[in-house]
Automatic annotation (TrEMBL):
CDD domains: GGDEF. It holds the Pfam family GAF. PROSITE patterns: GGDEF (PS50887). Gene3D superfamilies: 3.30.450.40, 3.30.70.270. Coiled coil: none annotated. This is GGDEF domain-containing protein. Signal peptide: none annotated. Transmembrane segments: none annotated. Residues 194-327 form the GGDEF domain.
Length: 334
């Protein structure tokens, strides 16, 4: 078994990794979403986001393993960070670097490994996004590119930590984080020739909640609606609070008609929230959406703008139909 070497920039690499304040933190849905997606796309039992510390690899996300870390000197990912491109091991039992590793000869029985380094600040590889199987296999060119794409999204999530791109109140991404992450997710869906859709939500009467019940109650309403969105959307969808009472969701792989089903789930979730909490007011929302086809070249910022305009059109239509009601009709963006 080859003990992985340390790169010439090891000190700077470790300093950057520690500055993220991510080591030994609880599971994070943003990373778990990616490993679940990788497990499904590649049909493998194990997928991880691994961060290589001084003497260990620690898993920020790990699907299919019950451990949180392994020693660095036996890890595949410690080899992966020594190069810019993928490390692919078709059969670890036939590779002299890993054949006698306890990860191969022991109960885990790794046979196949593919990892893509996670690089920040252009040159510092802090970890790897990897998939593992207990039987030998190969990756074709398309699968290799898909693994790179997933690693780029994981990198963007790490960059989000650097940019402090999370909304402190709700725990969702903020506008900066959403635009950065959404750009990569949208590119991934286009590469896969898959449709996507962006939904724009606005809370009706939110100013009145603040004015009548106070800003603390307004914050409670925002947190409550964020929870409704988490429950209504899929684990692989990207959610954000853009600011104030505006929320967005980017749904990758959305089929025509999925938007109406998602909005129905949000409406049911809001109704349940109102029934269970009884705060003296009801949460209500307006919504618009902007689909993005496989051939479209629309940016995340443009999709937000289109869906925003659709949301306001829906809100106006609802007011004209019933001036006392703030429930919007569903009108798709054109």
């Amino acid at each position: 078994m080859d003990i992985p070497a340390h790169g010439s920039n090891e000190a700077a690499r470790i300093a950057l990794l520690r500055s993220l304040n991510i080591l030994d933190t609880p599971p994070d849905e943003r990373f778990d979403r990616l490993t679940r997606l990788a497990k499904r796309l590649f049909d493998v039992p194990i997928a991880t986001v691994s961060l290589v510390d001084t003497d260990r690899q620690w898993f920020k996300s790990c699907i299919g393993l019950s451990v949180e870390e392994t020693p660095r000197d036996i890890s595949f990912c410690a080899h992966t960070i020594l190069d810019d491109d993928l490390l692919v091991v078709d059969d670890a039992q036939l590779d002299p670097r890993f054949a006698d590793s306890p990860l191969v000869t022991g109960d885990l029985g790794i046979r196949f490994y593919a990892g893509c380094p996670l690089t920040l600040n252009k040159s510092l590889r802090v970890g790897a996004f990897c998939i593992v199987d207990k039987k030998p296999r190969k990756l074709d060119a398309t699968e290799r590119e898909l693994l790179r794409d997933l690693a780029r999204i994981a990198e963007r999530e790490l960059e989000v930590l650097q940019l402090a791109a999370t909304d402190d109140l709700t725990g969702l991404s903020n506008r900066r984080g959403f635009e950065a992450l959404g750009h990569h997710v949208l590119a991934l869906t286009k590469r896969a020739r898959s449709r996507a859709s962006l939904l724009f939500f606005d809370l009706n009467g939110f100013k009145q909640i603040n004015d009548v019940y106070g800003h603390a109650e307004g914050d409670r309403a925002l947190v409550g609606f964020a929870g409704v969105l988490r429950g209504a959307l899929r684990e692989t969808d990207v959610l954000a609070r853009l600011g104030g009472d505006e929320f967005v969701a980017l749904v990758a792989g959305a089929q025509a008609g999925d938007e109406a089903q998602i909005i129905d789930r949000v409406r049911l979730g809001v109704a349940r929230y109102n029934r269970d909490n009884r705060r003296g007011y009801d949460l209500k929302f307006s919504v618009g959406y902007a689909p993005c086809g496989t051939q479209d070249d629309t940016s995340i910022a443009e999709l937000i703008d289109i869906a925003d305009h659709a949301m306001y059109a829906n809100k106006r239509a609802a007011r004209e139909k019933s001036p006392r009601s703030e429930a919007s009709a569903l009108v798709p963006a054109q």
